[in-house]
Specification:
about 120 residues; 6 helices; YefM-like fold; 3-stranded mixed beta sheet; elongated; about 15% strand
């Protein structure tokens, strides 16, 4: 980690803005900018900012928070059925162990050749 970019004065930040931009884009890094020795701003990557905004949006929606809590309880109890299991039950998905790749390829080739006629 480049600690010289972790906290720096606004004057120094002005000189090193491109270095700071590269630094904050490296996985959850941020730079604190100071003015007269006191923190006055923080620079984070656009991805990190988007993540924070999404988290704030979710946290500010009580109904969604309740749904997430409820889903976590159900998941913890393992009281659910996977989408794959539901689709297999309705015969909409062929389980991977039953797929014959060669016959599937042949079927696709046959369909393509019939369309081209």
């Amino acid at each position: 980690m480049n600690t010289s970019l972790k906290t720096l004065s606004i004057t120094e930040a002005r000189k090193r803005i491109f270095d700071i931009a590269k630094f904050v884009q490296k996985g959850s890094q941020y730079s604190t900018l100071t003015e007269h020795g006191r923190a006055c701003a923080v620079v984070i990557s656009a991805d990190e900012f988007d993540s924070w905004i999404e988290t704030i949006d979710i946290a500010s929606n009580p109904r969604l928070v309740r749904t997430i809590r409820s889903a976590r309880k159900v998941f913890a109890k393992k009281d659910f059925i996977s989408l794959r299991a539901i689709l297999e039950e309705e015969e909409r998905v062929i389980p991977k162990d039953r797929i014959d790749v060669r016959s599937r390829r042949q079927k696709i080739r046959t369909q393509k050749s019939q369309k081209n006629r």
